[in-house]
Amino acid sequence: MIMVYAGVVAFLLFAAGIMAFQNSRLIAQQEADESAGRVSSLMYSVYHQSFSYNEERPEAVPLFQFTVHSRSEGQLAGGEVDKTIALCRVPAGGGEMALSDAQSWMLGNIRQSALRGEQILADSFTDNALSKGEKEMIFLLESAVKEETADANHY
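Now predict its structure.
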């Protein structure tokens, strides 16, 4: 009888050890995935240069850009005559922003330029979009430029 109890106890200890080992592996995998997810979400950067449709760069894939022209004969707020701001997807972890932050940043700059009375010309690279989120962002930025330029034309 004691042998049966000893066998049951040994079996339960063995099973508990296996479960603890599996649990520690699962937790380690989740922590690795979370840290990789934070780094890989930084996939977007802003460049102050113009991209063309047939131009391919592995370090920066353009998704949306807008060029700002001063409506007056003077210069823009920063002293330039024209400036182009391009939102690009970069290799995972190599960017400064996540998709939502990049969208907010671009919207803010579009609105600031419109409030200063500057002419905005937008180019979108929908063929370069890989995800539904990128396509939606491009559509939203196009809509914002149309809305802001329409509002500016009414004044």
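The two ends are 96 Å apart (CA to CA).
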